[in-house]
Every structure is written in C-alpha cells, then in structure tokens.
Amino acid sequence: MNHADDECLKQVLAGIRDRQWDRALLACRRLLILCPDHEEGLRLSGFAAFQMQRGELAQRLSRRAATANGSSAALLNDLGVIFKAAGRWTDAEYCYRRSMALEPSLGDAASNLGNLMASLRNWHYAAVHSRRAVLLRPDHAEAWNNLANACFAGHRNVAVRQYCLAALILRPAFAEALTNLGNIQHRLKDRRAATRQYLRAIAVDSQHADAFNNMGNLCLEQELPNEARLWLRAALALVPGRAEVANNLSSAARQLRDTAAAEQARKAVRLGGDLSGPLCNLALALQMNDSGLDVRGILVTALCKQPDDEKAFCNLGKIFSEFGEMPMARRCFQRALAIQPDFRAAQQNLVACDLYSDDEPQCPLPTGRRSLGQQGKHLAALPKAVPVRLPAALPTDGRLRIGYLSCDLRDHPVAYAMLPVFRHHDRRAFSVHVYADVHKPDRVTESFRQTVDHWTDVTGLEDDATAARIRADNIHILVCLAGHFDDNRPQVARWRAAPVQISLHDVATSGIEEMDYIVGDPWLLPRNSAEPFSERQLRLPRFYLASIPDTLPAIDSPDADGPPVFSCFNNPSKITPTVLRLWGRILARLPEARLILKYMDSYRAAPLRRRIVDAIAEAGASPEQVTFIPAGREPVGDFLKRYNSIHVALDTLPFSGSTTSFQALLMGVPVVAWPWDRMVSRWTTALLHMLDLAELVAKDGDQYVELALRLAKERAEWLSRRGDLRQRIQERLCDAAAWTRHLERLFKAVWLRHENGSACHGRQPAPVKTRGGR
User: Fold this and answer.
1) Model-level pTM?
2) CATH number for position 293
C-alpha cells in the first residue's frame, strides 16, 4: 500500500469512528479509484453504505469485495449482515455458514448466525451458535447478549441475567444488554428494577427504540396510557415502520377510550405482516368502537397467522366471555394454556368461566366442583411452597396483625365495602397492614393509605417474594380479598404467608389447600349445601355491608299506569342462555313491556346485541321490546337516577348481582332472583333475606317468570313502598361499626383456634361463632 492509499484508509477509519458515514463512503471511493481491488476499502465501503441504509449499494460493494478477493470469511460475514438487514435471510444464513466453514474460529459469524436463528424463532440453534461464539470470543459482548436473547425465549431466566451481566462487564454502556436485563426483570414482575434498566439504556443510547417501547409497555401494564403514549411516540419516531410500536400505541389509545385506536391498529396491521398481535389489537379496538363487525373473525385470522400465539387465544376467549359464550371462551383459554402452561391470565379466565357456567342446578357435577378441580389442576403445575417460620404468639403489645392483600383498593365495589371496615377496626386490638397490588392508584387508594397502620406496595413482586415480605412483617392473619377477580393474587397463600389465611369477598372456593377459611353468611354458605370448598366455612350474621353514595338521588317513581319496565344493569357476561329464555318468556307474556339493558359501554358491540335479541325473540318476545343503553361510565348519582324509570329489576343466574342488586334496592326497585346450588348465585338472595324480602326469591325458572309478572302487575303497590325499602337498607345494611366488630370476633376466634393447635388441614373444626343477630 502506497502513501496515498494509506491516507485514504485513515480518512475512511476516521469517518467510521465519528459515525460520519457519508464522509467514510466518500473516502472509500477515493481509495477504490487508487486501488480498485483494495479488500479493506471494498469491505468498509459496503459497511458505510449499510449504515447509511443504502442496502442495494451495500450488497453490490460487498459482492464485489468477495469476488475480487476470493472466498474471504470476513467479507462473507459482512455480506450476511447486509442480506439479513435486507430481509434475505436464506442468503444471509448461507453467507454466515460459508464464513464459518472457511474460518471456524471466526466468532463474529457464529454470533451473527445465532442472531439470525433467533429472528427465525429457532431458539435451540440460536443458543447453540451463540454459545459457540462466546467460546470463540469470550470478550465479545454482542455474543453474550445474543446468548441471553436465545435463553430468554426458552424461559431460562437465571441464565439470561447472568449472560446480560457478562455482556455489561465487557461493555458497561451496552444499551441492548441493559434492555435485555430490564426485560428479564420485567418478566419476573420487578417493574421498578426493569424501569431502572430501561432508563439506563436510554441514557447511554438515546436512539435505542427498544428501551422506549418497553417503557411504554410498562406504563400500559400499570394503566398509565398518557405516559405510555409519550414513550411509544418517541420509539415510533426512531423506528417509523415498526409494527410492534404502532400496535402498542393502539393499546394506549384504547385505554384512553380514544376513537383513533382502530386507525392506529390498522396501521400496525399494515406494518405487521405475519404478526398476529396487531390483528388482535385491531379486533379489540373495533369492538370498543362498535364497528358493526364481528371481531371474532379478525382474531381467528390472527391465529391463522400465528397458531402458537397464546395471547391471541386469550383475547379471543375474553371476547367470547364478554359476549356470554362461555363454552367457546373455555376452549380458547384451554388452548392458550396448552401453548404456555404458566400463562396466568389464561389460568384466571379459565377458572372464572365456571363461575358463569349455565348448567342446570342440581346437576351431578356442580360448577363449584369443576371450579375447585380446575383451580387445583393449574395450581399443581406451580412450584411447591417451602416450609417457613411463622409467628406462634401475639406480639408484646397484644395486637393481632391483620394483613389485607388486594388489587382493588381503588374506585371499585370491594374498596367501597372495605373502607368503612378499615376505619372502624379497633386499633387497640388490631394492627392493620395492607399489601397492595394497585396498578392505578386514585383518591380511594389514598383514603386507604391514610387509614391503615402500614402500607406495602407489592406491585411487580412474585408470589413467593410477596409471601416472604408478609412473613417478615410477622402477620398473624392474611386476608385475601376477591381472589377470583381482576389481578388479585390468592396464590400468595400457597407460600403460607401467614399462620391463618382467609378468603374474603370471594364467590367460590380458591381451591388452595393453604387457604384456611372462606367467609360468608347463612345465606351465602348454607349448611346443607353440597358445594365443595377447600377452605373451612365461616359465617357472619350477615355479609353484605352497604356504603351509601354521597350523591344519592331522590326517589322519583315512574308512572304506575304506563307499560311495565324491566331492567338489568349487570355485566352481560352474566346473561346466560337460561337467563335469556326466562326473559323472553316474561316479555312474551307482556307484549307492552320493555327491558332496558346497560353495563358501561358494553352494548356498543353489535354481536352482543344480536345474541341477546335473537335469544329473546326465539323465546317468543319481540326484539323491539329490548332497549340497549351503550353509554359509558357515569357519575354514581346519574347512574342511580336511571332506576327512577324502572319498575322491576331482573337478576342474572347462575352468577347473581351484588352491587347492582343493592343499587336497585337502594332506589326502591324490587329485584327478582333465582339462586342456584352455588355461592356465586346467592348474593342477591342474601340481600333480599336481610331486608325481609324472601318473597322475591324464586325456587325455579317457572316461579322466576311468575314473580316478575306479578311484580309488574302490582307495580303501583311496590312504587308506594320505595321510600320504606331505602330506609330499611339504611337501618340494616349500613352499620359498619357493628359489622367490623363481628369480623374482629371472627379474627380472634380463628387465631385462638390456631394457638390451640386445631388449625391443621383435613379436620372439620368446631364452628366459629360471633355474637349478634341480623
């Protein structure tokens, strides 16, 4: 090489060092004019063109280099990189393999081949080639990071963390490795640690789109769509054609109830090619916007693209569930679990399907037994809890430490039922601790914070780590609230987080052997019931505790001489085929009557409306008798005013109403109920018994119909009783102080039983009694 060639090469390297690719490419051209077959010049010119995203030029220059200098392993490796970027993966694989054949010790080619296998979702060979690259070049940070990627797909969580740390030791400012480390912490539900790693990645490389996108995902999980939008828009500015980011932006828009969600989802579908995720999001967005399309077809198309997409199956199951089509929903959740057995969302949804099961009562295999069996089946696949040390006696101050575990301490019915209890707990006898998994805290959350003795945020902690934290606080009694619903985590009880563990505000057995008790009352848990429970049953004198809203509207009765108006404001998932047959019979007998249905904005979905109208028409009623109100969430006072135009409320079955039935009764509207052979079906019945309205409880379907018809006929008499019904509720269901005393006596009794050594599993204990009547 002469002096002129040497100077040109120095200019090329300087341009590459400064990331000034146009300057480097210009210097390469000068070098190639002086020496047309200069191997390094040809290779670096292809590299510079590749960095400038001039793919065709990069391929042409790299091929020229390979032709001019024979079969060079380094050049073939470079050409493979360019082919991969151009989407020519078969050509890229050939180049990498040819490079490795020519020079087996070339670690870069092995690393790149492992990366290519990962792109092809061939995780086994991705790990094989990445491990070979690490052996050839232990100082190669990219190879360690690629190996972490391959192990991540194989759920080898410990290995991923080790390989990411190895990459970061070699290159502390390695944004990709920092992001991968955040990903594994995110998978392990340590959101705080994941956030730290993503922010570190952004700090070392402000152009690293993955970190911005993953921060957006974290915000979406925590229901923070505004913050998510900021991160995702920054990611999309860096990679405008990336389907995953566009898809996440659609999710943010959907959380914000933004009508632009569907258009953003369509954009993601156009960019996504064979990805199923954008199609799933499009289906959910279209359902929200009431497009008139059957979104199930879109989800089926998504599954044709990726038959192993467990999230698509779970989403399809949720759609079927929302439409009340439980058998199809169950099949979808089972398929999702067959793909990924530890998919918690699918596990919870599958168990919940049995709560809505429309089997006839007194069937040989009640829903509760299937629920218990299904729950046990999934729990058996989880790691077994280890023996732990537990507190054996009260602390020196003599107070019982009560720990409440919940995700519902926010604007939620469970929170409104429990907040008065927290305020009335006797602090001389009890220390109240909360373990909150609240993704989106609000003013109600803050009210709980101000009320309790200790507040611990366990959002993102694994079940075993949460249990360890509860044990470290020496909690005596752990109360798991509403375990079957939302993101609640009764599985924490499997790790024996406390000596005594109680299920409260749930509607069925948890199926967890370590859950000691479930709380109800004589109507929710009748002593002659055959429904199976893994827990022992505890009965308060009455379970329901009412919280009267601050904006309670006045009762304004509808016209007694007008046509009868029925209503149901329950979740449409509870409206089963049996319910629709009964309602159709009622409306067919009263052709002038109307049925008003409302639940949030669910009835914007055309397929749901069609299912209900078709079933009612099949039972003999007219579709015109049904009125759907698709309005979204309303202020409580405005919502309750709707009952002023209603004569009779119709309960659902087998999953009965609770809050909705209470709201109807609070506005003086009678509710017709038919309890089945399970706890989930008895909530309205319990309310009616507490109010001396057992006359509204049917024994079978025929009586349910006749009761509704009688109430419609006697609507003038019931209108005159509305004020009395509200007063009865305020007298009997609103004494939070008395209710809390009963609960505290129960806590003391089960703790005394524990101290006496009678809390071992498998024996029926003597009944726990609390004093007091209704």
Assistant:
1) 0.70
2) 1.25.40.10
Which residue, of 521, 539, 557, is where some domain finishes?
A: 539
Distance CA 715, CA 303 (A): 51
Contact 742, 540 (CB under 8 A): yes
558, part of any domain: no
- Residue 206 in tokens: 């402000």
Total domains in the fold of the chain: 4
Neighbours of 557 (CB within 10 A): 19
The CATH number assigned to the domain holding 468 equals 3.40.50.11380
The CATH number for 681's domain is: 3.40.50.2000
Rounded to an integer, what distance in angstroms lies between the CA atom of residue 729 and that of residue 715?
A: 20
Does the residue 652 lie in any domain?
yes
Q: Are residues 613 and 716 in the same domain?
A: yes
The most distant pair of C-alpha atoms in the chain lies apart, rounded to whole Å, by 110
Contacts with 218 (C-beta within 8 Å, 6 or more apart), sequence order: 186, 191, 194, 195, 198
Residue 563: asked if its preceding bond is cis (omega within 30°), the reply is no
Query: Do 23 and 52 fall within a single domain?
Result: yes
Q: Are residues 82 and 199 in the same domain?
A: yes
Burial 113-152 (b: 16+ CB within 10 A, else e): bbbbbbeeebbeebbbbbbbbbebbeebbbbbbbbbbbbb
Q: Is residue 741 part of a domain?
A: no
What tens digit of pLDDT does each residue of 252-284 get?
666 666 666 556 656 655 555 555 566 666 666
Each residue's pLDDT tens digit, 722-769: 989 999 998 899 899 999 999 999 999 999 999 887 544 434 444 454
CA distances from 635 to 411, 439, 550, 593, 602 (A): 12, 22, 11, 28, 17
DSSP string over 189-219: T-HHHHHHHHHHHHHH-TT-HHHHHHHHHHH
C-alpha distances (whole Å) from 35 to each of 7, 86, 91 are 13, 28, 29
Give CA 517 to chain center in angstroms.
Answer: 26
Q: Is residue 426 part of a domain?
A: yes
- H or E stretch including 737? helix 736-755
Same domain? 211 vs 272: no
Query: Is residue 386 left, alpha or beta, with left meaning phi > 0 and alpha meaning psi from -120 to 50?
Result: beta
User: From CA 256, how far away is CA 259, in angstroms rounded?
Assistant: 9
Query: Cα–Cα distance between 87 and 80 in angstroms, integer?
Result: 11
Task: Please identify, among 180, 205, 231, the residue that sits at the C-terminal boundary of a domain.
Answer: 231
Angstrom CA distances, 589 to 614, 650, 719, stand at: 17, 15, 22
Question: Helix or strand or coil: residue 456?
Answer: strand
Place of tokens 């470290």: 472
Is 20 in the same domain as 155?
A: yes
Residue range(s) defining the domain that contains residue 669? 565-732
- Give CA–CA dist 213/646, Å, rounded: 48
- Answer yes or no: do 424 and 528 share one domain: yes
Burial of residue 369, with CB atoms counted within 10 A of its CB: 0-12 exposed, 13-18 middle, 19 or more buried: middle
CA atoms of 121 and 391, how far apart (whole Å): 49
Identity of the amino acid at 652: T
Question: Are 606 and 718 in the same domain?
Answer: yes
Q: Within 10 A of 581 (CB to CB), how many other CB atoms are there?
A: 16
86 and 194 fall within a common domain: yes
- Provide the pLDDT confidence category of residue 318 given band limits of 50, 70 and 90: confident
Report the distance separating Cα 663 and Cα 722, nearest Å: 13
CA distances from 54 to 60, 376, 479, 487 (A): 10, 57, 62, 48
Q: Which of the residue ranges 22-31, 46-55, 764-773 would you say has the lowest mean pLDDT?
A: 764-773
Residue pair 433/456 in contact (Cβ under 8 Å)? The answer is yes
User: Quick one: three-class SS letters along 51-65?
Assistant: HCCCHHHHHHHHHHH
